[in-house]
Design goal:
Radius of gyration: 24 Å
Number of helices: 20
Keywords: Plasmid, Signal
Oligomer: single chain
Family: Belongs to the bacterial solute-binding protein 5 family.
CATH topology of the largest domain: Dipeptide-binding Protein, domain 3
Strand order of the largest sheet: 8-9-10-1-11-16-12-15-13-14
Helix content: 25-40%
Protein name: Heme-binding protein A
CATH architecture of the largest domain: Roll
InterPro entries: Peptide/Ni-bd (IPR030678), SBP_5 (IPR039424), SBP_5_dom (IPR000914)
Subcellular location: Periplasm
Distance between the termini: 20 Å
């Protein structure tokens, strides 16, 4: 326990109760479990934005990744600090029965936030038609890119389920440990007055449960002391929405916050200059990208999109705006793919001369191309956007940069502009990256932003083949398509995530953007 937290906590109790003697009397009268809660520190985290929903199947943005994981668990856990090793979570064992069926043994005695013991019915419901897989389910559309191969979940007995896929799925184990595979309470979901009520206070099995939630203000989580994997280290976690970076830093300096998120690279030295503060973080399992919409008459030509990609000096952006603290990518892939990482693939680099040649071949006439950006959603987004726009204009493009107030005018159907984006590696496989973001059923596909038939055929091989070489060959060809032939977007660099924290807080982030404040004694979480 942090001494400063302990002192400030008892001082507060002393003021309320009339001094330390009254505080001691107050504590002695409390039940043992309540005393344990009181003895634990409280954590306050300032975030750039809170999600408007705590239901993970509805949100795939950083704002959700930062707060939702403390509420939920997966059947199979991923240790992001240990080479993405998969470990037992709510499941103790899993085995393939045949090429379409996996049997999963559930951990007995898992107490959910509503006091019920988790059963196979809860697990089957979590992936079932009322919540996810039915066409009328609230998360049907968003979940297709993550869970579409899961046809049904069969209850074998109270502690056993079988996942049946519509076709062979080589990454089913990874899907069950990735985003949207969180388990919820069937009874609590069905008893909620509305889905809107549910997504503001979902009931699951994680180390913390929802105590209160005020949209655009704060989220308070309370320790779930019946947690199956150990005692949560904090009595409460309070997430506060603080959009302005300067206000987050000022609050950290003043001691109002224990941890703050989303520090721009040019502010890291300022935070580090305070002796009682630390900066942690680095590359994540996300990349920053620029996305092109083929509905625009100029962007419809693949030569123009490739020219835009080749006109970007990615190294200059990393060096000047990120102080060299993040790495570049080799096209649309992550080094965590193991044998599926195509090391010999050459992603697009900086080649302004070739960009000009392509513009001439496409008979580009100087027509303006809209580029919609947010002022500060991603770290240094506006400076990065301005630098990229200048690079495009240097080779002869006419760029109309339009700063938007929110995503509402960017994530639209049939877009006809360029916009910023990011790619989360949901699982350490191209199915959880390139294919999920740009393939059939993806948000890009649903908005009619880009579609390539050969890419989709290859993606189906990647998603269903149990032959490692066939999958590797398919992915290699998919990379060639998206990086050089029919460019839907272009990767910029790894997305860095930097946090400020008080020196006494014993917490380190992993490459995942999921903030984990659960118990660490077992090594599972």
């Amino acid at each position: 326990m942090n001494d400063k937290h302990l002192t400030s906590h008892f001082e507060l109790l002393g003021r309320i109760s009339g001094g330390f003697a009254a505080a001691a009397l107050f504590l002695s009268a409390m039940p043992v479990q309540a005393q344990q809660v009181a003895d634990r520190p409280r954590l306050t985290v300032a975030v750039q934005e809170l999600p408007d929903s705590l239901e993970p199947v509805m949100k795939t943005r950083t704002s959700a990744f930062q707060v939702v994981p403390s509420i939920f668990d997966f059947l199979i856990e991923t240790d992001y600090s240990d080479n993405f090793d998969r470990k037992p979570g709510l499941a103790t064992n899993w085995k393939r029965i045949d090429e379409r069926t996996m049997e999963v043994d559930l951990r007995p005695g898992v107490v959910m936030h509503d006091g019920r013991v988790m059963t196979a019915e809860d697990v089957a419901f979590s992936f079932g038609p009322q919540r996810v897989s039915g066409e009328d389910a609230p998360a049907y559309g968003p979940s297709r890119a993550y869970l579409k191969t899961i046809e049904r979940v069969e209850v074998v007995d109270e502690d056993t389920v079988r996942f049946v896929t519509s076709k062979p799925d080589p990454v089913l184990e990874a899907r069950l440990s990735g985003w949207m595979s969180q388990v919820v309470s069937k009874k609590a979901f069905q008893e909620a007055e509305s889905f809107s009520d549910w997504e503001r206070a979902p009931v699951s099995t994680g180390p913390y449960k929802v105590q209160s939630f005020k949209t655009k203000d704060e989220l308070v989580l309370a320790a779930h002391d019946d947690y199956w994997d150990g005692t949560p280290p904090y009595s409460t976690i309070r997430y506060v929405e603080v959009p302005e970076q300067s206000s987050r830093i000022a609050g950290l300096v003043a001691g109002d916050y224990d941890i703050i998120t989303d520090i721009d690279p040019d502010q890291l030295e300022l935070v580090e200059s305070y002796g009682d503060l630390e900066v942690v973080g680095g590359d994540t399992i996300m990349t920053r990208s620029i996305r092109f919409s083929t509905n625009h008459p100029v962007l419809k030509d693949p030569r123009i999109r490739l020219a835009l990609s080749l006109a970007i000096d990615r190294q200059a952006i990393v060096d000047s705006l990120w102080d060299g603290r993040v790495g570049l990518t080799n096209g649309f892939q992550f080094p965590y793919y193991g044998e599926l990482y195509i090391e010999e693939h050459k992603g697009p680099g900086y080649d302004p001369d070739r960009a000009r040649e392509l513009m001439a071949e496409a008979d580009y006439d100087g027509s303006p191309i809209p580029y919609r950006v947010l002022e500060h959603w991603y770290p240094v987004e506006l400076p990065t956007s301005e630098a990229i726009a200048a690079m495009w204009e240097a080779v002869g493009f006419n760029i109309d940069m339009q700063v938007q107030a929110s995503w509402d005018t960017i994530l639209v159907e049939n877009p006809a502009f360029i916009h910023n984006g990011a790619t989360l590696m949901n699982i350490p496989d191209p199915v959880g990256g390139l294919w999920r973001v740009y393939g059939e059923g993806s948000s890009i596909d649903r908005r009619n932003q880009w579609r390539n038939e050969e890419f989709n055929k290859l993606g189906n091989v990647l998603e269903t083949s149990l032959d490692p070489q066939a999958r590797r060959d398919a992915f290699k060809r998919m990379l060639q398509i998206v990086d050089w032939e029919d460019v839907p977007a272009t990767e910029l660099h790894m997305r860095g995530a930097f946090y400020g924290k008080r020196a006494g807080i014993d917490w380190q982030p992993t490459p995942a953007p999921y903030l984990d404040f659960g118990p660490t004694d077992t090594g599972v979480n």
